[in-house]
Task: structure prediction
Amino acid sequence: MTETFTPPTVAAGADSPLAVLFDLALAIGTVGEDVQRDDAETAALDHVWSVYPDTLGKVLDHDDWSGRPALAGAGLEPCAVAYLDGSLWLHHSSDGDQEQGVLTLIAPCTCGNGYVDTALDGEQDLLQVLNDLRATSGRFPHDSGWPDCDSQRRLRAWGDARP
Result:
């Protein structure tokens, strides 16, 4: 017969070392949203300075990044975004399996209905993507084989709050 182990119930007094440790573990284990934002901005800037020193490292500083806290319910880690102008964005996030972050360039599609993103793999990759985007005025060419851009990431006039 299989027996189920039931751990003993430990009642810790409010001033007991165990109760204090429980409170400390809760406080230390919880990182506030402000700290998450700041850490995400710092991680993005560090990544840019170390991997893209001759390009993004020369044009972006800490004030250009906007950190976002984790969304645990959606399984999203803290991240940071930087607006480059011309409707182009950078998105930096940490990949739990990687020691370094993931940098993604997000640009409008030539169809005018959505955005296309591409993960960047170093400075040479960024330079190639930028040279390709120069020919299309900073827009990724629309590929009819992709899902409809309009159904994924909708572009709209500045200030239009509609989803």
